[in-house]
Amino acid sequence: MKARTVLIKNAKIVNEGHIFEGDILIEGEFIKEIDTSISAKTADVVVIDVEGNYVFPGVIDDQVHFREPGLTHKATIESESRAAVAGGITSFIEMPNTVPQTTTIEKLDEKFAIAAESSYANYSFMFGGTNTNLDEVLKVDSKNVAGLKLFLGSSTGDMLVDNTEVLEKIFRSTDLLISVHCEDEATIKKNLEAHIEKYGNDIPMECHPDIRSAEACYISSSKAIELAKKTGARLHIFHVSTAKETKLFSNKIPLKDKKITAEVCIHHLWFSDEDYKKKGTLIKWNPAVKTTKDRDALWKALLDGRIDVVATDHAPHTLEEKKNIYTEAPSGGPLVQHALVAMIEAYHQGKISLEKIAEKMCHNPAMLFQVEKRGYIKKGYYADLAIVDINNPWTVKKDNILYKCGWSPFENMLFKSRITHTFVNGSLVYKNFKFMNIKAGKRLTFKR
């Protein structure tokens, strides 16, 4: 259903810390009206009665790897944005470690061109920093690009920024939001060598959080924060995974005033080191899934405001690749289709409120990245909406997994809730496991 006049009736609207019953009128791409009761004034208005289901703002996922260009045997922007929309994610920010890497303006523009033709969801891309491309970084228009991504560990190609002078120069020179992957390479290398000496290359998966250790994360995160404070740079730390790191962040000031912010990912909130025995390399991520103590601390920091955003770090690989032994199995896994329902499962478990889910997955990413007219259910905003039936169980199976790689770490999981409808820019793109074959995604813009 392409963008037209649509009236959503009998909704429980989750927005800005409240849940209220009402109707939403969509006209074209935008929300025209929100009220307790709205009548269709003309016969051509499409009325959708959601029968008391919950309407969330479309989720904004601030960290995904959709693998295009160059790694399209794993995923494409088309395939993964489609899976994202089925999961209620209406906007994504994709990372620069594709092939070729997004470290020049030319390669950045090529990715925007691919997305303009193929994306079901709204899109932007991180520009990648290296030890040698500061001149290119300074050409990036901050109003039209999500930000700058720096790998301070776990890089691909030449994207490890390990020259401290260059790093400080980047922090001082750019007005872009700087997002970082923090793991100390020297610590990881030392740990890996010790484990290879003990086990050879076939290291037990349970050793992954010992190799990519909490200390490796903390060393790198604390250095990045120290540098941001020194230079005044705007810093966002991706996928915080340890209890120790949560102490680096503050909840003393509102998010809009923070210069240093943090993200946690679904897998670090869901899994722990106790799951390696059953899941093996399917839950091998960088940074590693760590202890239950770490997981509990991440939940605490998320709820008390030290951690600002929930994202996925969606990073698919083929099953064939993941089935390799430890030293050859790549890190990362697919998550966008199941992220929102996983968080609502946590709601059912009493861990988080629906209002807080909307805050951490919709409002805060919009505020943090200064995304224009998205992330909220407001008059005049784009009609990016996810409608959720929170009491309609379904099981994740091979035949309903939409990722190109064809697997999920949540396979055989029974979720209590499901996404029933997803609107992108006023167009109904997805309804009850069926797609309307409308690629309604638009390039995100930023109010900076």
User: Tell me, what is the CATH class of the largest domain?
Assistant: Alpha Beta
| Oligomeric organization of the protein chains | single chain
Q: On the 0-100 scale, what is the average pLDDT?
A: 96
What's the tally of helices? 14
The rounded Rg comes to 21 Å
Domain module tally:
2
Described by the principal axes of the CA atoms, the overall outline is globular
Helicity range of the residues? 25-40%
Distance between the termini: 33 Å
Indicate the CATH topology of the largest domain: TIM Barrel
Strand content: 15-25%
**Tell me about the biggest sheet?**
9 strands, mixed
Under CATH, the homologous superfamily of the largest domain reads: Metal-dependent hydrolases
How many β strands by DSSP? 19
Low-confidence residue ranges: none
CATH architecture of the largest domain: Alpha-Beta Barrel
Q: Which class best fits the helix and strand makeup? A: alpha/beta
Structure description:
Its EC number is 3.5.2.3. Its cofactor is Zn(2+). GO terms for molecular function: allantoinase activity; dihydroorotase activity; metal ion binding. With 448 residues, the protein is an alpha/beta fold. The protein has 2 domains: 5-55 and 377-435, Urease, subunit C, domain 1, CATH 2.30.40.10; 58-369, Metal-dependent hydrolases (TIM Barrel), CATH 3.20.20. It has helices spanning 77-86, 105-118, 134-137, 164-173, 185-199, 208-211, 214-231, 243-246, 266-270, 276-279, 292-304, 319-322, 339-348, 354-369, and strands at 5-15, 18-27, 30-35, 46-49, 54-57, 59-64, 89-94, 122-128, 147-151, 178-181, 235-237, 260-265, 309-311, 385-389, 394-395, 414-415, 418-424, 427-431, 434-435. Strands 1, 2, 3, 4, 5, 14, 17, 18 and 19 form a 9-stranded mixed beta sheet that branches. It is globular and about 70 Å long.
